[in-house]
Amino acid sequence: MDLFYQSKYWKVKRMSWFKKIAGRNKKFKVGIVGFSDSVFNKKKAKEIVENAFDEIAEKKSDYDIVIVSGLTNMGIPALAYQEAKKRNWKTVGISAEEAKEYDLFPCDTVLYKGEKFGDESDYFLNYIDLLIKIGGGKQSIAEFKKAKKMGIKTKKYNLPERNKK
After folding, report:
1. Separation between Cα atoms, residue 151 and residue 26, nearest integer Å
2. Of 19, 29, 37, 72, which one's alpha carbon is 20 to 30 angstroms from that of 62?
3. What is the pLDDT along the chain (165 residues), one digit of tens a residue?
4. 10 Å Cβ neighbour count for 141?
C-alpha cells in the first residue's frame, strides 16, 4: 500500500471530507411566527427577517436551513418564505385545514394538522429547532411561550402595529 494512504495527512483529509459530506444532511429548522395581516411596517419587518436570516446563515453554515411557518402567503410568514427562497433554503408550511381558504405560499413541503387555526401548534413546535417571533398576535404569543417552556431556542423581535402607539 502506498505510504501516502498510511500517513496522518491522509487520515486527516479523509475525516475532513467525511465531516463535510455528513454535514450536508444536517437540517436546522427555523420556525417563524408573527403578524399574518398587513397592519405592520413591512419595510422594518423585511429588514428584521433579513438580519435574522443572516445571523442564522453565519451560525449554522454547516447545516441545511429549513424555514417553517404557517403556510399562508401573507404577513411575516410570506416575508420569511420569500427570503428563504432567495437563499435557496427549503420551506415548510404547517397549518390547519382552515388555511386552504387563504392565499398559500408554494412551500417545498406542506403539512396539514387539524381543522382550525391553532390545532397545528403542537406539531409545529415539535418540528422546529428555533422559533423566531416577529411581532404577532395571540397565537404567536402563545406559541412563543409554549416553545420556551418546551426548551426550544427562541428569539423575539418587536414590531409594533402601524395603528398602535
Report:
1. 20
2. 72
3. 455 445 454 444 444 455 455 555 699 999 999 988 767 889 999 999 999 999 999 999 999 999 999 999 999 999 999 999 999 999 999 999 999 999 999 999 999 999 999 999 999 999 999 999 999 888 999 999 999 999 999 999 998 765 444
4. 13
